[in-house]
Design a protein that fits this description.
This protein is of the alpha/beta class. It is built from 14 helices and 26 strands. The relative contact order is 0.09.
Length: 492
């Protein structure tokens, strides 16, 4: 094949795994042979719309087989796939479509109001395009250095940037996942997070397809349905964030659901609270943790289940084909236990941001090290610990306070369902930490109770000076709290 990128995967899988289930969605099961035919036909249909190598094709919709079909049809043509966040406002979506100069927008029925030149709606329109296409596979020269996907960052530090993931980035990230998570062709991976999120795409869907496993798609996360799907489809692999797993283990069906098939449970975003960890341990389950970001494909590190206790709070060790280091402000490697900026290098790390040469140059240190903007340290065995986002570090009276540490301690309080610690201006100390949290029904969490809980665990200067209870924390699509929104809201 001339195409050595991910666009060749479905055809290669058709040859090796024709009758094996590739995608399950509701009552529909699509084999690799069936998926290959639809991908080939869709690629032909998109070419009739004028899509050529290097063009961008955007996708806006919930988790659905058409997402996977479009991704592989686009990359079959050597074009670039641009998945869009369904939770964004029309103006934000319009910016990304314009910034990427996408030639075609494939969209779900509820997103038809977004304006662009050529639109194809999932359902009858997409099926018509597929039916009109030629089932003979198109083979175009594509290398690992060619762009495959543009994923827009959450924009928590400004206007979103398009992280350009090459075919090689996605291949090596998938290989890292397969190696470190021991994926097999018999795995069944349940995708409950949006596929436009780098973790769901890069750590779940793509590695599973590369290995010839089965991807089970859920349009949206619902705890009861998720538990039912685990039992029904004998799910072996699932990924999520701490909140996801908390909602599952607190659901009334948790105790009666057969979870015996689960083998790999990955969690990113932040460490798993101890009470959630214990709830899963009681069911004979352990977590695989990790750290990463869109720009690293997204995997950078992983923590294996056998270290979930003795290395609690750690993001683990670098993925097999990835290097991680911690450096001080002068760019020198830090000693164990010394906090510095975490940097990542490897074939899974992006080469650039879309049409942002200045941002691309700023993102890398000499030697090809990607500047994560995260603060962390390693222990004497090389295990990585994340302290906080560089921009979220609170400096109070000359003391550095890392919000992640405070948040983890607060989450041990059973009545707290979610928390974000932010900096607020203070005349005496410059900044002080403030806890913005959500609580369980009828629970009361105030400054006095928080002081009683945190007093034995944290230094006094780290304890939030104010507690703000809200109904819901603002989040990005990947589940990260929008702290900038909270700072703007409560600093007035």
């Amino acid at each position: 094949m001339e195409n050595s990128g991910i666009g060749s995967w479905i055809e290669r899988r058709r040859v090796k795994s024709a009758t094996h289930a590739a995608v399950i969605y509701d009552e529909s099961v699509t084999t690799y042979a069936q998926l290959a035919e639809r991908v080939n036909r869709l690629a032909s249909g998109l070419r009739m719309l004028g899509v050529a190598k290097g063009d961008r094709v955007a996708y806006l919709g919930d988790n659905h087989p058409s997402f996977i079909e479009t991704l592989f049809a686009v990359t079959t043509l050597g074009a670039v796939f641009v998945p869009l966040n369904t939770r964004l406002a029309p103006a934000e979506l319009a910016y990304m479509i314009e910034d990427s100069n996408s030639r075609v927008l494939v969209h779900g029925s509820r997103f038809g109001a977004v304006d662009t030149a050529v639109k194809v709606q999932v359902g009858a329109e997409l099926d018509t395009l597929v039916d009109s296409g030629d089932p003979v596979r198109i083979d175009i020269e594509v290398s690992h250095d060619d762009p495959a996907v543009i994923l827009y960052t959450s924009g928590t530090t400004g206007r979103p940037k398009g992280a350009v993931l090459s075919h090689g980035n996605l291949v090596w990230n998938a290989i890292n996942t397969i190696v470190d998570y021991d994926l097999t062709s018999e795995d069944r991976a349940l995708m409950i997070s949006p596929l436009f999120h780098s973790a769901s795409l890069g750590m779940g869907t793509l590695p599973s397809i590369l290995k010839g496993a089965t991807v089970v798609l859920e349009a949206a996360f619902d705890p009861a349905r998720t538990l039912a799907q685990i039992e029904r489809h004998r799910i072996t692999y699932i990924s999520g964030v701490p909140t996801t797993y908390q909602l599952l283990c607190e659901h009334p069906d948790w105790a009666t659901t057969d979870l015996g098939s689960l083998r790999t449970i990955t969690c990113g975003g932040s460490p798993v609270p101890m009470r959630v960890l214990e709830a899963y341990e009681q069911r004979g389950l352990a977590f695989t943790g990790g750290y990463g970001m869109t720009e690293t494909g997204p995997g950078a590190t992983s923590l294996q289940p056998d270290h979930s206790r003795d290395r609690a709070g750690s993001a683990g060790l670098p993925h097999f084909f990835t290097d991680v280091r911690i450096v001080d402000e002068a760019g020198r490697d830090t000693a164990a236990g010394e906090i510095g900026e975490l940097q990542v290098r490897g074939p899974n790390v992006i080469m650039e941001y879309w049409h942002r040469p200045d941002a691309s140059a700023e993102a890398f240190a000499p030697g090809g090290w990607f500047r994560s903007g995260d603060l962390g340290y390693t222990d004497d065995q090389g295990f990585v610990y994340i302290s906080d986002r560089l921009k979220d570090m609170i400096i109070s009276g000359g003391e550095n306070i890392y919000a992640a540490e405070v948040e983890l301690a607060i989450m041990q309080l059973a009545d707290v369902s979610a928390v974000a610690v932010i900096a607020m201006p203070d005349e005496k100390w410059g900044e002080v930490p403030v806890a913005v949290l959500t609580v369980r029904d009828e629970a009361i969490v105030d400054e006095a109770r928080l002081l009683e809980h945190l007093g034995p665990q944290l230094a006094k200067y780290k304890i939030p000076k104010r507690v703000i209870v809200v109904d819901e924390l603002p989040r990005t699509a990947s589940g990260k709290v929008r702290k900038a929104d909270l700072r703007e809201r409560f600093s007035r």
